[in-house]
Amino acid sequence: MSLRHLKVRVAHKSVEARYITGFLLIPADGIELPHFAPGSHIDIYLPNGITRQYSLCNNPEEPNCYRIGVLQESKSRGGSKMLCETVEEGDILEISAPKNHFPLDLNAKKSLLVAGGIGVTPILSMAEALTNSGREFEMHYAARSTDRMGFRERIQESRFAEKTYFHVDDENRAQLFDIERLLTAQDNGTHLYVCGPNGFMDAVLSTARNIGWEDARLHYEFFNAEPIDAAGDKKFQIKLAKSGKIVDVLPGQSVVEALKAEGLVIETSCEQGVCGTCLTRVLEGEPIHRDLFLTPEEQAQNDCFLPCCSWSNSSLLVLDL
């Protein structure tokens, strides 16, 4: 079987917190699962035809298994609901090999791990890896309430428990998460890793930038994109550099959809501009970036874009396709 499509069995399903379910995945056919680095995620190809990405939260040195945590969204588009309500122990799932768009730099003088809610999943793997290597770090975990803190018991019993600080919105003010105070206290050798709800991440990253943190020390991964306001979108055209073909992109459709209608399929996964799977090189034109994958500096270069969600500010975009 190729590493792109792996079959795994749900060996254990557990309630990790309110609305959060944990899954232990092991090989379904005796194969060795590919090693993963902290920050990695897998695609899960669900029986209902949906593909979703979930961060691996176990110790990278744990043999031949993957662990994920799934938050059942109140407005689930079908992925988290199926996993949490339908998939049971013993079921077989098809997944991708691990991918990593959120790598950990083990050479940093210090790592500051910051998690909001379900964003703790990749952060857990990082904490395990940093502990394995004896590197300096601290972890801060913020949530609305204690009962929404996935994997809290695991953290309290872990080797890095003394390096972890919990911040809960509905408890005493002394332990509330003070972003600016935390970031100001760090020296220039510290790298920040943050994952969680979009609003939480925006607050952490904007605070860091406002007090002078360089983007090279900021590492992050968004889970979901906010709804796009496409009310002002106007028709534009795509030119395929390799064939010269011109394709119209109309308001209400994505570039991916427009190209698919003309027989050109671009590989996608999240379809929200989060995972980077469909990253495409732009040769001419000015894209309107609506993704959460590229950094602000990368977006400013306008030499690539995410066609699953982004648009165009120019009447023509020439793509390296």
Descriptive report:
The strands form 4 sheets. The protein has a 6-stranded antiparallel β-sheet with strand order 4-3-6-1-2-5, with helices on one face. The protein folds into 3 domains: 6-95, Beta Barrel (Elongation Factor Tu (Ef-tu), domain 3); 110-222, Rossmann fold (3-Layer(aba) Sandwich); 236-319, Ubiquitin-like (UB roll), CATH 3.10.20.30. It is globular, with a radius of gyration of 21 Å. Strand 10, helix 5 (198-210) and strand 11 (218-222) form a beta-alpha-beta unit. By secondary structure, it is α/β, with parallel strands linked by helices. The chain has 7 helices and 18 strands.
Q: Topology as H/E string?
A: EEEEEHEEHEHEHEHEEEHEEHEEE
Number of structural domains? 3
Number of helices: 7
Structural class: alpha/beta
Q: Work out the radius of gyration.
A: 21 Å
Distance between the termini: 29 Å
The CATH superfamily of the largest domain bears the name Nucleotide-binding domain of ferredoxin-NADP reductase (FNR) module
Arithmetic mean pLDDT: 92
Shape: globular
- The residue ranges in which pLDDT falls below 50 over 5 or more consecutive positions are none
Q: Find the CATH topology of the largest domain.
A: Rossmann fold
Blueprint (SSEs and pairs):
Layout: E1 6-17, E2 20-27, E3 41-45, E4 51-55, E5 66-71, H1 79-85, E6 92-95, E7 110-116, H2 120-133, E8 137-143, H3 152-156, E9 164-168, H4 179-184, E10 190-196, H5 198-210, E11 218-222, E12 236-240, E13 246-249, H6 255-261, E14 280-284, E15 287-288, H7 296-301, E16 304-305, E17 311-312, E18 316-319
